[in-house]
Amino acid sequence: MNDTALWARRLERERRARKEAETLLESKSHELYLANKALQKSYDAIAAAKNYTENILRSLMNALIVVAPDGTIQAVNVAACSLLGYSEAELVGWPITKILAASDIAGPDEGTGLADEGTGLANVMRHGALHSVEKVYWTKDGRAIPVLFSGSIMYDDTGGMQGIVCIAQDITERKQTEELRRQKEAAEEANRAKSSFLANMSHELRTPLNAIIGYSEMLREEATDQEQSGMLPDLEKICTAGKHLLALINDILIFRKLRPARQNSCWRRLTSRGLLPRSLLPLSHS
């Protein structure tokens, strides 16, 4: 075989090798393209899922706070910022004691920075969750806001504690309603006690007054029959004062039964000429 034939065979082998390399490169490029496309699709799906989750958290009406294992705030939603008066930057990275009473956090639990005593995050750590417990959040301007607090531990893929998710519902209006109801019940109880007192007073006072008035009238008649005129002025004072006091008691009892919202005003002209002597009469007997 001459040199020309050898050279031609070598060129043919190189051409075939180059073609195989180009085919392999094209195949690998296509595989890389498909892998990159699948990876991009996965990234898009993760971003969409993350955005969806963040939208859910932002739209929550209740305040959401995520606390890290070291006791610092990891994340908050818009409702939490609105409730507490802080911006997100003012809360993230700060200790949870900034908004939750220290008595609810207590001391650190084996270096985690969270509580091992109390009724707040400590119980979340012990039991894994805490549901609908009344707590107090402190706002930026120092106000205490009563909340209905729930919390649960968030775990990572290895089963380790990643943090605590805290949900709080503002129950200020409910507390105010409860306080108004307690005041209303106290007022009704006081009104019942007043009515009972007045009813007892009517019995306890009317009975002896009627007896005093009756006996004074009897004594006045006997004094008149026996012509003991010296006793008549005093007996007249006793009888008149008794009737006056009985009239006052009757007026009080009548006033107790009045319902101002159901009564119509009645205007009538009065003269002090007749009222003044009656008003001064008890003073003249003292």
State the gist of this model.
The protein has helices at residues 3-59, 78-84, 88-91, 121-127, 172-225, 232-257, 272-285, and strands at 63-67, 73-76, 129-138, 144-155, 161-170. The chain is α+β, with helices and mostly antiparallel strands and 286 residues long.
Shape: rod-shaped
Helix content: 55-70%
Kindly state the mean pLDDT as a whole number? 78
Low-confidence stretches: 106-119
Strand order of the largest sheet: 2-1-5-4-3
Distance between the termini: 160 Å
Q: How large is the count of helical segments? A: 7
List the quaternary state of the chains.
Answer: single chain
Write down how many β-strands occur, each being a DSSP E stretch of 2 or more residues: 5
Residues in β-strands, percent: 5-15%
Secondary-structure-derived class: alpha+beta
Main β-sheet: number of strands, strand sense, barrel status? 5 strands, antiparallel
Sequence of secondary-structure elements: HEEHHHEEEHHH
Radius of gyration: 46 Å
